[in-house]
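Hi Y.,

Following your request, here is the sequence exactly as I used it, all 516 residues.
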Amino acid sequence: MHISIAIVRRSTLPVLAALLATPAFAADDPPLRYAIDLSDPSDDLFHVVVEPPPLTDADRAFDFVAFAPGVHAPLHFGRFVQSFEAFDADGDPVASERVGADRWELSEPTRVARIEYAIEDSFDSEDEGFRPQPSTGTGIEGDYVLLNTFGVLGYFDRLLSHPVELRIAHDDAWVVGSALERDSAGVFAAASYRALVDAPLLLGDLSTVSIWVGDIEVAIFVHSPIAEIDAEEVLFKVGDTLEAAGAYLGFTPVERYVILMDFIDRDSIHRNRFRSFGALEHNESSLYAFPAGSASFQGIGSIIAHEFMHVLTPLHLRSTVIANFDYSIPTTDEHLWLYEGVTEWSAGILRLRGGLTDLDTYLQEMSRKIATAARFDPEYSLARLAAEWSTDEGVRQYGNIYQLGALTGAVLDLRLLELSNGERGLREVFLDLVRKYGRTRPFDPDAFFTDFIEATFPEIEAFFADHVLSNVPLPYADAYATIGVTWADGRLTVDENATDAQLAMRAAWLENLPLD
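Below is the corresponding structure, written out as tokens. Let me know if you'd prefer a different format.
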């Protein structure tokens, strides 16, 4: 099974009927085919045609994404649909009815040969509900389009793993950035609908540059209204972080990784009523949206490091729940501590070990995380946070995953180093588990703690029981004392009188240990 996607120029296929004219699959394996017409973006709508393979009576529901991986907030893209119609092979209408915020029901699905709908972008929608931040939404602007495919393409639940074809008509001068790769025929390929909606596109007046990080090709695509901010400038700002990340990984988890960056001018921010900015990780890419200006480069290395580290989890290390994500409900398991907490810890430690920040600065950053974590409700363990993030109170507590989650990773790393006499920390255990499971073998969420303990030490069972499943405070003083760092008066500081044993453990902590 695979998906083929062709980006089609306006001059060659100006209408959706032409977009869907040439099948990309064998007749005995018809794909679920999508076409998006952006040849005239002035109406601010994605015009979509869907041609499904033969449907069954079980395929009455056509859904739009309500929740997406990595976005811990409701999206409900069905609310942006402006029109929806279904037709049979002769072009006669097939009755359909909206039956929910994100669902349309087809009266006779076995007759359906084509669905047509128009969906507005989330950037400037007049909908008064939750507004996705730019990196999790969709935008049709004058000189570019930001396309999170999960925000435009609806789906049949039975066909989530079915072959898919997507074609997009757009200005023939536009550059297209995406992790989806073209084959020799100019067709993009992916593995499934799930892979398709995990690969955003940035199309338009973009600058681009590529570099190699070890054996990983990293491509950067940038949209910016400011000439001084382009792909070369982004590379200058984050190149050393990418190099440090490559050294931290120690192996090649993906062959190609794509960074998509949208710098948004003040007028667009005001017009679209943006209130927050940020980034969204994807398995082989990440999408960033920031205000256009030099201030957006402050801390960009840490942000890039975090998103890049998601190539480990959830790409190579994720549960069956996440691998089979349900786009209609708040899908979760209790391992948010791993997906976001350990990733955030990795983003910081790789910069320390890569020489991009010194020890004193790193300890100051961790001290700030400790102080910030203390402002959240101490009754929320990491496991409870994972289970309740979609509730009103869980939303208010969610930010602690980047504080307490990262701190838990830090203390777990020190505990593993202590138990292994400095031979194996969290990075090494994490990478061993990545290689054990990999992209095609998600883990059983109920068995993962046991797997982790069996791969390390019996003492780690108590660590998980206390600090992930329950809310016992982390032992900062004892943990950091093992490397000659003192926790006192709300600060982590280097102990100038550290013993030889502490200094030896610190040396092990400060390096990426050899992998088995």
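Residues 345 and 406 are 4 Å apart (CA to CA).

Thanks again,
Q.
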